[in-house]
Amino acid sequence: MAPRPGFPVTARESQEWVDSMKSTFTVLRGAVGVVVMAGFSLVNATVAAQDFGDTPYVQTPQNVVERMLQVARVGPADYVIDLGSGDGRMVITAAQKYGARGFGVDLDRRLVELANKRAASAGVGDRAAFYERDLYETDLTDASVVTIYLLPEVNLMVRPRLLATLKPGTRVVTHDYDMGEWRPDEQMVMDAPDKPVGRDKKSKVYYWVVPANAAGKWRWELTVAGKPAVFDLSLAQNFQDISGSVRVEGGDWRLENARLQGEEISFMLNDAGSKTRYEFSGHLAGQGIVGSVRVSSASAQRQLEWNAVRTELALPAHALLKKPTLQELQLVQ
Ligand SMILES: C[S@@+](CC[C@H](N)C(=O)[O-])C[C@H]1O[C@@H](n2cnc3c(N)ncnc32)[C@H](O)[C@@H]1O
């Protein structure tokens, strides 16, 4: 599988990764093949073709697992789902070290058995379960955190489902590969001395918060210069990026610093006439926003309640993207 341009890894790194795995593992789904145990011991080294959509088994080093869970701020209230769970280390660590619950899915029955055994011996068998299941057929709705270490193409295939089915505010954290045009909210490169692949012993970690749908038109009323004024906000959205325009009683006000993280929205408006700044922040739930606005002028500052209603629902641009086909992803060289 050749690396695709536009991914955060160099072609050399990506090819090295795939080559090293091909030379080490049998990656043919269902074939007689790989027996990989914790510690990365390998029993069958047959090289075989890989089904598109499958990712061969490579462990995330334990220090990277912990960093991923920290970046996603995993805690006791979380439900973690690992897509392609290998020996279960992601969900087991989430349960053991951070008190979370969750499950992992993997196509490889032996890995699923191994993961369940490891969960039992770690004393978290009641909070970390593993199932032999295709990640494309896995119900993700319970997740508050999704962890992923899959090939770049697979991330792109999974991305529309993540955006369409995960609750807004769900955190997604990946190892080594990003999600194409979906800009990460955080990213980092870290030392990974125990990494079984690649020469530089580094890992990349990417983090996103699933955005709510804020696209469309919103309206609210607020007192401006002592008189009630109607605010009309039009928002366009692509992934978590929002932009738009505001009309207040027939005049255009500039929208600045618009930000959406999960269901939390904030932005600033400036009334050039009265030299007043309005800083809005609120929680978006369905067709309403509830929050507050800080109004600052040269002479005074006050905090008011802010309640907006959606007057028109639109689709974010990312929801209109056609789901990539296997062929398209393989053809982009
Ligand atoms: C790179 S490994 C990551 C293992 C583990 N999450 C970790 O980070 O150590 C990818 C895993 O995904 C599994 N896998 C590949 N395609 C899958 C699919 N369609 N559904 C479920 N699991 C899959 C492989 O069997 C492999 O164990």
Distance between the termini: 10 Å
User: Which segments are poorly predicted (pLDDT under 50) over 5 or more consecutive residues?
Assistant: 1-53
| SS elements, strand count | 17
Tell me about the biggest sheet?
A: 8 strands, antiparallel, barrel
Bound molecules: S-adenosylmethionine
Helix content class: 10-25%
Q: What class do helices, strands and sheet pairing give?
A: alpha+beta
Q: What is the CATH architecture descriptor of the largest domain?
A: 3-Layer(aba) Sandwich
- Per DSSP, the total helix count is 7
Basic shape: elongated
Query: From the alpha-carbon coordinates, what is the Rg to the nearest angstrom?
Result: 23 Å
In the CATH scheme, what's the topology name of the largest domain? Rossmann fold
